[in-house]
Amino acid sequence: MSKWTWDSNWPAPAKLNLFLHVVGRRADGYHLLQTVFRFIDRADQLRFTPRPDDRIVLATPIPGVPAEDDLTVRAARLLQQATGCRQGATLHLDKQLPMGGGLGGGSSDAATVLLALNHLWQTKLSRPQLQQIGLQLGADVPVFIHGRNTFAEGIGEAFTDVELPAASYLVLHPPVHVPTAAIFGAAELCRDTPAMPPGDWRPGLGHNDLEAVACCKFPAVAAHLDWLKERAPGAMMTGSGACVFADFPTKNEALAVLSALPAGMHGWVAAGLDEHPLIKI
User: Fold this and answer.
1) Which of 44, 70, 109, 140 is labelled catalytic?
2) Given this model, what pLDDT does residue 51 score?
3) pTM
4) Which of the following CATH numbers is that of domain 168-271: 1.10.10.10, 3.40.1190.20, 3.30.365.10, 3.30.70.890?
5) Could you tell me which residues come within 8 angstroms of residue 125 by beta carbon, excluding any fewer than 6 positions away?
6) Which CATH architecture has domain 10-161?
7) Catalytic-role residue among 15, 109, 209, 247
8) Catalytic: 3?
9) Cα–Cα dist 196/82, whole Å
10) Residue 91 to residue 257: CA distance in whole angstroms
11) Annotated catalytic, 274?
12) When comparing pLDDT for 3 and 5, which is higher?
């Protein structure tokens, strides 16, 4: 019997982009990317309660986000539509990951909903089928369903899995919400970084093309990144921001830098994961 049941707490882990290059743009406006996604052991948590009807109810709405727009609700309803399932669920979300932080929290939540309810409702879709549903919700959703640290291409949906060394990450969270659209829509964004073959990538190779735009538009991001780079020259921003991070060989080294964080700056240390905690669902 699976350990994952209606009574379980279902994790929705954060991701870091170990590099992020914009290598082009499609005719429909979508940007073509190359990146490596790594999961880390900091996560939102979800619980699910079966219902006697077919409704999807979010018991813990996020202030300012209508239920109809919440990715978790949309994910559950898309699964119902794709499978003809007439079961319902109440969703309980314990939100630990910051919104607008570049950690993929909303996408990870949506992926965990699809993985969990596909299991709990016994709708029996394959991971590739769930990834197709997830892509309707956002470009980052499929990687969380895929469940492995991976070199991603296209709009983020073509995967070449990678083995990554153990690492502890110090993540700093500037007190700003960075809208992804504002970064990708900036005229000054570099969109022509040469593409690389996935097999050529190694840890420490590459940069984040979105970083310069985010630092210019959001000085708090620049301040946090500058502070971290003084102590870890390889530090960079994840996703479209706001969070910045650096990797350290040991947890103690990461904690030592965290302990020197100035008043007014916030951060935490998390270990890199070898795979998504729901990889065996």
Assistant:
1) 140
2) 97
3) 0.95
4) 3.30.70.890
5) 79, 82, 83, 118, 133
6) 2-Layer Sandwich (3.30)
7) 15
8) no
9) 36
10) 37
11) no
12) 5
